[in-house]
Amino acid sequence: MTINVLLVEDQKLIRVGLKSLFEGQNDIEVTVEAQGGKEAVEKYRLNKPDTVLMDIGLPDITGIEATKRILEIDSKAKIIILTSHLSEQEIMDSLHAGACAYVMKDISTDVLKMIIKTVKDGAMWLDPQVVPILREKNCGVIPPRQMSRAMFKEQHANLTQREYEVLKLVVDGMSNNEIAQELTISEHTAKAHVCNIIQKLVVDDRTQAAVKALKEGLV
Fold it and tell me: What are φ and ψ of residue 198, in 5° steps?
């Protein structure tokens, strides 16, 4: 089944280049385009694409604000922030707005395609350049060091050690399948661990679980 993508990018040259990446593909297709945030919200409303590739710097409202408005229309919308901005504030604002992924524009074509597919299936993904910023440059909100095992057990005794390991991989942006391969477990078991983590951390999805884990210094 083809994944339909709404591409939101104000620069025509970049928009044409991104669209060309998926030409001739059977599994991913850019079916809708928007040059601004307000247009993106309206086109999402009309077309309900499977995923959205959203730039941040748009001429009317930001991609972050557009993300919020789209999620008000459809709380299950899968939005991938695709940007050249590596700002701590924009990263946090994007995740709090409900984006499923934060991706830098220098990403490889193959990895971008993988991200679109895994986000469509319910995964979240953080660019490797983003994780260190969240861990080390968040003005003390996110501790730069890993929580000690004793402190972890004291504050989050309801998470098992295996769930803690899975949580670290969720924060690193791994899909259920990748977690399964990393830990040599079945994908079904990996999915079950992720569901347990979401429930125990009292969040709605894996993106919120990753943000909470980073904020509280769990990873």
Answer: -60, -45
59-82 pLDDT, tens digit per residue, is 999 999 999 999 999 999 999 999
Residue 19 corresponds to which tokens in the numbers above? 């669209």
Nearest by Cα to 74 from 48, 54, 38: 48
Per the confidence metrics, is the pTM higher than 0.70? no
96 and 17 together in one domain: yes
Torsion of CA 88, 49, 8, 23, to 10 degrees: 110
What are residue 3's phi and psi, to 5 degrees? -90, 120
List the domain range (segments joined by +) for residue 94.
Answer: 3-127
Are 99 and 20 contained in the same domain? yes
Instruction: Tokens for 109, please give them.
Output: 């074509």
